[in-house]
Design goal:
This protein has 250 residues and is mainly α. It is built from 14 helices and no strands. The chain is globular. The N and C termini lie far apart (68 Å).
């Protein structure tokens, strides 16, 4: 945890008062490096705690995430929720603190893969795979699939080269900035169609798998996805209805 002195120095930098002494710079750099290395999982715990506080008020929770935490990206928000719920469930179970710390110290993409496992199965999984930190993300995903009795997933890259990287790049885009794209003077109908059809194609390709594996997913995540899809459907349906009315009146 950051002590008050470090927090005050961070606030001072934000105000333009910059550190100069090497010892001070070193201490601050070490503290920030440690905090940044654990930012995603710490934020995940916060996001999951907020979700529990809001209960079934998913819209309120989403708004809280955006306004108070600055998490505009819905996909990233869902990822944080899954990891946070896993960490909280693990901490509240009969597992030992070292097991919680083990998962907490892993990279976020590995934590996301592990979040598919029920919390009560995580201790046994950790015992079976004691070197998760040395395994690649793909290896962790395959191990989780095996633990769930699934056929090990074929790497998507073998079918679509670069697909994982492209998808990760899209997910990493700040949702707020992405929503502002339409306000750019260079935005046009062709760009809008390209974005919409790409999104629809990705959704059509994945929704069947999500529906078939709904029991493995968080209810809040599914509900938020459903709400977004419904919002899109209503918006387009309204536009189509308005256009037809105009055509009938001409």
């Amino acid at each position: 945890m950051l002590d008050c002195g470090i927090l005050q120095k961070i606030d001072a930098i934000a105000e333009g008062r910059l550190p100069e002494e090497l010892d001070e710079l070193t201490a601050l750099g070490r503290a920030l490096f440690r905090v940044n290395a654990l930012t995603a999982q710490t934020l995940a715990v916060v996001v999951a705690g907020g979700s529990a506080a809001f209960g079934r008020n998913i819209a309120g929770w989403s708004e809280w995430c955006v306004k108070e935490l600055g998490i505009d990206n819905a996909s990233y928000r869902s990822h944080l929720l899954a990891v946070g719920k896993m960490l909280r469930a693990l901490r509240n179970s009969d597992c030992s603190i070292p097991q919680f710390r083990k998962i907490f110290s892993l990279a976020h993409d590995k934590q996301l893969a592990l979040s598919r496992l029920p919390a009560d199965r995580l201790p046994a999984f950790l015992s079976h795979y004691p070197e998760l930190d040395r395994m690649s993300r793909e290896e962790v995903r395959a191990a989780v699939s095996a633990a769930l009795g699934e056929t090990a997933p074929a790497a998507v890259q073998q079918l679509l080269p670069g697909f994982d990287k492209a998808l990760d790049a899209i997910v990493a885009i700040d949702e707020g900035k992405l929503l502002e794209v339409a306000t750019n003077p260079r935005f046009d109908t062709q760009t809008a169609l390209k974005m919409s059809y790409s999104g629809v194609t990705l959704c059509k390709a994945s929704v069947g798998y999500l529906a078939d594996h709904a029991d493995e997913l968080d209810d809040d995540m599914l509900a938020e996805l459903a709400e977004n899809v419904e919002m899109i459907r209503n918006r387009l349906a309204s536009a189509v209805a308005d256009r037809r009315k105009k055509l009938l009146n001409n």
